[in-house]
Amino acid sequence: MSDSETNGPGWHATATVGAVLFGLAAVIGYDVTLMAPAQAVGVGPTAAMRIVALLLVVLGLAHVAKALRMRAALHGKKTSELGAVLTNRAALGWVLGGLIGMILILQLGGGFVIGSTWLFVSTARAFGQSIRIKSPAIGFLLAAIVFAFFTRALSLSLPAGPLERLFLG
Amino acid sequence: MEVFTLLGQGLLVAIQPGNLLFAGIGVLLGTLVGILPGISPSLTVALLLPITFKLDPTGSIIMFAGIYFGGMYGSSTTAILLNTPGEAASIATAIEGHRMAKAGRGGPALATAAIGSFVAGLIATIGISVLAPWLVDFAVQFGPWDYFALMVLAFVTVSATFGDSVLRGITSLALGLVLGLVGIDKLTGQSRLAFGVPALLDGVSITTLAVGLFAMGETLYIASRFTGVQEKIEAVRGSLWMTKEDWQRSWKPWLRGIGLGFPIGALPAGGAEVPTLLSYTLERKLAVKPEEFGKGAIEGVAGPEAANNAAATGTLVPLLALGLPTSATAAMMLAGFQQYGLVPGPLLFVTNADLVWGLIASFFIGNLMLLVLNLPLVGLWVRLLKVPQPWLYAGILVFAVMGTLAANPSTVELVMLVTFGICGYLMRCWDYPVAPMIVGLILGPMAESQFRRALQISLGDGLVFFKHAGSATLLALALLALVAPLIFKGLKRFKGDDA
Question: ipTM score here?
Answer without folding.
Answer: 0.88
